[in-house]
Amino acid sequence: MTTLGHPAFDPLLLSVAAPLAVALSIALGLPKRYAVKLAYVGFAVPALMALIVWWGFGEAAKESHGYAFLSGYATGLDGFGIGLKFGINGISLPMFVLAGLVGLAAGLYAIQSNAERMKTYLLLLLVMQAGLMGTFASVDIFFFYFFHELALIPTFIMVGVWGGRDRTYAALQMTIYLTLGAMLSLLGLIAIYAKSGAGSFDILVLRDTLASRPLGETTQRHIFGLLLFGFGILVSLWPFHSWAPLGYGAAPSSAAMLHAGVLKKFGLYGLLQIALPLLPFGASHWSQTLAVLAGVGNVLAIGLVTMAQRDLKQMVGYSSVMHMGYAFLGIAAGSILGAGGVVMLMVAHGLSVALLFLLSTSVYQRTHTFDMDRMGGLAQKAPALAALFVAATFASIGLPGFANFWGELPIFVALWGFSHALTVVALTGTVVSAVYGLRAAARVFFGPESAAFSQVAAANPTLDLAWGEKLPALLLAAALLFIGVWPRSFSTEINRALGGAAETVVASR
Amino acid sequence: MDPSLHLQSASFLAYGHGNPWGAIWPELSLGCLALFLLVLETVLPRSAHGRIPAVSVAGQLCILAVLLGRLDIPVSTAFNGLLILSSRGQVMRVFFLLTSLFVSILAYHGLHRRRVPLVEFHHIVLVVAAAMMLLVESRNFVMLFVALETVTVGLYILVSYYRSSPATLEAGLKYLVMGALSSALLLFGIALLYGVAGGHGLAGRTDDAMEYAGLRNFLDANPHNFLAAAGIALVLSGVAFKIGAVPFQIWIPDVYQGAPTPVTAFLAVGSKAAGFIVLLVLVTEVFPSYEWLVRPVLTLMAAATLLFGNLAALKQRNVKRLIGLSGVSHAGFILLAVVSACAGGAIGAVYFYLYAYLIGSFAVFGVMSVLAGPDDSAQELSDYAGLARESPFLAGVLACGLGSLAGIPPFAGFIAKLYVFVAAFDAGHFGLLAVAIAGVVISIYYYFGWIRAAYFSDEAAVSPETAERVRSGPGFVLGITLALIVAASLLLGFCQGPLGVLMSGR
Question: ipTM of this model?
């Protein structure tokens, strides 16, 4: 194993250590007043570090395979080829920034939410945040998995304790599904480790080893299958998706934001960063299966299911399952263009779905229901909420001007080269998502007030978004717009990392 | 702590080389400590008897401290090859010492609520721990059997220690009958091996067929002898009883439920670990030329154990039966590691898994013994409702312990499962791996159910009597112990340091 130095200022380590340190001090019994204040720091530091890394990445010295900011720390597991090694390349950079931003938004929203047992809630969110930052900053695939689990466990607890309807059942189903997915992907990672003979979990070592000595085609097919279904379950690949709408429906908003927005992308990120480069034959073998499952299952079937939802939060949950279908299609297309689109879509979807979950909770606090038939006319009472919700809906449909457009467009272009039929399916999907998105916005915010909502509104004076809610929402919406009008901010590095052609295809503005 | 005791162990250390008795100083110190407890009981006035367990704990801590300083020793034999001493042996000595220490602490905390003799319990625990150490060091069937019987006889007494409780007596009887049966199987196997290796004029016959090295030479020379194969099968069955592997797991739920909680912990951790090390030694050092028999048998056993343990635990409401059945599933994981080791996988995985299992189980047993009411055997999952509200500390310890047992990072149990999976992958046991993965997923259900009862339950808080016990807390000694266990679980899971290197050395 190569031993790396510890830089005096390591933004990646800091982004993991800061939330963990705050969580630890809360666990050791910090009084609530200070705990909340310190939690701001715990969420702000990773976001700040993410921006610093993003800003400095272009000039930073690149080492092998386009990784920058590399640093390594001894853990005592070195004998096994495992080391705590951080680093960022063009694919992990957007994810790292996404984790920082959504984490900050979820943290801010949680702090103003007045949840019961606030300290424990913040503690779990902070642990989750540390896990998320660590997942995308890890170069060692053992720690990549480890940090994912570190973020996953608090999710289960938060759904089980702070969740809404059916929380125990939802938490249990989520736990079992996601454990199965995690175990399968762990097995796939172990398989890569064992079969490569590199004696190391370091992705750089693995890439070098497998570049000179690729695995046999049959082995690649088996391992890719394990990873595909393992990661697939974690990303709610049809037909292993049923935990997602249920879990998100029950999850407290900040947990749903972090999980649907960021943590779920772990599987896609793993496929892009680990499975595709290391197992190219396996990827091409499975691409047909994946494309059909994702296209027909996730996009079409779940798209129609989403249209039938009457519960706002369930609808957002299902729509996130549906949009994962596009990401899988981009991976299946097997081109640099498609893969680049997937990275953009992951970021865009992460921001927009987190925004939607945040806003639906804010809607619930004003209407006391998630049932869209019992809402209506909220826009008059809460115009800012309505504006943000409509913006989030537009983004999620993929209108130009928002980041999602730059994710979906390259995927469709890449998909056309792969299969015309599936491209048509995917395009049909955008129409479906426009239908349910716009209909939901119309039902909730416009039209006459429903009788049920009038009663609720009469009992509780409805107010527009307070600053505590508005700030995280604006943060997410601004990021969506920023990437929407300037996709080059990420796409240049994504292209470079994907080893793509010199021209920046994604950012053809 | 009595200073003379420390002198004793120090002088044994000085003997170290040359005199064979010096080589087994930890066992001798434990034996002397055990006798010393009995002496104290006769010498001290009755009012001071309550303090005697503290002497036992302090004595064990001293032995542990000396032992930890001498972890890395060269491989050597003692008593003409009856015993072998090595770093791995030291690691297991520490393991059994930790086990007996924890059992003593649990008994110190829980036993005085009962009207049972105190000192004898601690005495027997020490003797059994010493016998377990000898058991894993033995390289001769006579030594093995004597040590095994010492362990088993001691445990017979401990299992039925609450003489007034019918459940305990039933458990004791079952353990006696089943233990006798397993000993008989083991002995019959040994006799067959002895007869075939020492009797005929077959190639490689040996004068001392009880000795592992001689027996191995014989088996290598006759890799398809029917009698030897039958003997090996019987020996494996006898050991399978001790580790609770299917189809010899039948006694586990009843005995675990009926036995006093400290004894259940002793059975679950100490006795099982000893059985596994014996199995590992036999499989890798004596029976390698019978891999054609051993591997399929153990593979089948591992698969059946994994499935049975997890499926049977699914619907279990009694926590002691639950921990027993989950222990069966852990036996399946360790068997998976043993099978991999017999195909040349990493032996360290077995040792590491045992340590992770020890840590996870102790955390759970510690909480169980605090919550245990007057009827030790009747603890249900519903008794844990609202535990998190009454005592966040105990609930936290429980969650960490169960998390570690379930194999969730960042706890030690996760790394242990990772080692086992890697070892199994290297050995090419893909079918067993699939079963193991299914086992992990199933196990999440019941571990989660337990955590759910402690954390998420909407039902009323714990029953008044339990709440009273919870509020009075685990006490200082047990509280510190549990905190240390949780810390160890995190430490071993994330940053193992030299201990991990020693155990996972590939």
Answer: 0.78
